[in-house]
Amino acid sequence: MSVWIRSCLKAAGVDTAMFKAPSTRGAATSKALATGLSLDSILKAGQWSRESTFNVFTFCSRQKWML
Fold this sequence. Notes:
Protein name: Tyr recombinase domain-containing protein
Order of helices and strands: HHHH
Organism: Daphnia magna
């Protein structure tokens, strides 16, 4: 399963050297944010009710993405 998820991440343009299968949610939201998707859209798609919850679960992933 992780091989399939990794290939999907790679096909989406996610750096699979930084993001592995367990970090799929963080990688996807980081990529969405980096490509300009609005935070409101990301919160809705991820079913987060507050931005603070989103930040707790994606902060490390976003830090990696921005490097």
